[in-house]
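Protocol step 4 of 5: obtain the predicted structure for the target chain.
Materials: sequence only (see below). No template structures provided, no constraints applied. The aim of this step is simply to have a reference model before the mutagenesis design in step 5. Sequence pasted as it appears in the construct record:
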Amino acid sequence: MLIMNMTIVFSVLTFQALLGAFDNLWHHELAARLPQRASARRELTLHAAREALYGLLFAGLAWLHWQGWWALLPASLLVAEMFITIADFLEEDRSRKLPPLERALHTVLTVSYGLLLGLLGPMFWQAWRLPSGLSVVTHGLWSWFFSAASVGVLLWSVRNVLAVRQLKRISSAPGQQHPPAAQALGGATVLVTGGTGFIGSALVSRLLSQGRRVIVLTRDPLQARASLGPRVWAVDRLDDIPAETRIDAVVNLAGATILGAPWTASRRQVLLESRRRTTKEVLRLMQRLHQRPEVLVSASAVGYYGVPPGMAPIDETAPAEPGRFQSDLCAAIEREALKAQHIGVRVVCLRPGIVLGRNGGAYPALALAARLGFAATLGGGRQPVPWIHLDDAVGLMLHAIAEPVLEGPVNAVAPQTPCQATFTDIMAAAFGRRARLHVPAAVLRAGLGEMSELLLCGQNAVPTRALASGYVFAHPTLQEALDQLVGSARPPRCSDGFIVRRL
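Step 4 output (structure tokens):
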């Protein structure tokens, strides 16, 4: 009877563990990206505690048999898990808006946990009435399966603890020195769309630190308030903003991630509509406001220039490349944004390159690959890599708001643009490694299709208008940017800041 009961217990526990693993990976890691969100420290702490309890419970059920007072140990783990889960539910409701699938999954997990308690409760009651003792037992393959599961969840618990410590260190670190914003910004109220994203959250943080009033358009106001702080007015519809609200500037950063799913016809439509729809909503808001904003800063990308040949410098006067998707996408975004000029709003179309920052974008993946020795040259390696440090991306947005002479397209890129092979060499050297790997262009084209252009082609864009308008870059060279991001001394380098490698 005991063997039969334990088989049922292990089956239910396996179901519970697999659902929990899916919830963790799909919702917490990929969707909410909790380890990258400073506001998620409490939730991650609760997750770490629960995973540690499950690790102990898995190992205990796999190999031990409790009697008497010893039975209180696994029972106390189950009770503690229940209270931690309740606290986790409350924290989730406070800090973020759960998608329907995650809510449904939590319901199923709760029912499954209730069934587990119904099975283990009578067993522990019977064991508690026996003479106290602790003995080693085996349940065949179940014991080995749950031993492996125990190691896995305990390691994940440690990983979450480290993530919490990292987030705490980042949030308590003294602020970085930022390029000064022009005083013309004054006490402006700024509306930021996409304000909870990688760049948007950095912009909002800088605006708040300068005493600005900030309104954020987001799909999840709860998450925005939790991550950005109570001083932010978070809305999920621009229609909720009264017409008498004073908004001095708008920064439009909203849009689905370009580098991700393949550029199928449906994906291209998502990429286009996610940007065009928000821009249209911003235009409608500006039209109905009693006082129009002074400026709209709208982000597209250096992909506006398509795939120009060679390394010839490209300033803001260069044309688009019709028929090339990345160019058509950026041109469509800018056409929509420039309609604001018809109602007397100054429009600045920022064209960023690859934005490098610790907590998002391309840098974390590039840094991890470099640290592990997997930095690779892509294709021939001669393609230019236009980049910009997050500090300067945000600084240029504030500069665009504050400088009334700045209008039209502005390349948001660092003054120096290395080729991809040099970029990879510098990145690898920043972690004391060498770039030894090579990924052929044919492999990337076969796997990514037209999206491979983002990796195999580039634009040697130069920030002509930014420099001419007086903007001073905080991180003008890639080596300086990596010194700040990595935070440690680097090997000697050539006078131009690049590590030279023969191509």
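Step 4 remarks: The CA atoms of residues 296 and 457 lie 30 Å apart. The chain has a mean pLDDT of 87.
Proceed to step 5.
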